Amino acid sequence: VFVVHGGIGPTAATCTIDELNTHVMNRKLSKVSGEVFEELLWSDPDDEDSKFSESPRGLGSLFGKDATKSFLKRNKLKLLIRSHEVRDGGYDIMHNGKCITVFSAPNYCRVSRNKGAIVRFEGDGMKPSFIVFDAKHYPIENH
What is the mean pLDDT of the chain? Predict the structure, then answer.
């Protein structure tokens, strides 16, 4: 299982896990390492089959299920888990079950009214299951 904040982009997708670790550690030293770091932080999954497209955020890339499949195969992994986007139900499963977004902040910024979720893995097969929850409301005191 590969867990990342954002996702993968065209540069990160060509890397092994060991290479990604090297890029993250050297992100201030090279342009390529900086690009990889940006992709890992800000890329988002797309419903398209395509590998990559430009992100409307202006940072990172949109990655399709072909990109997810290729990256996981290269690294002998079964699943990519990310957390970078609000999901109304707390989580979302994409790319034929190979890419999961888990967003753990319910009612994000006190306006989204989304649920939060966490993922846990069960059994020898590491099957993902989800715990979904609502926000707790705490009074705000004026000082």
Answer: 89
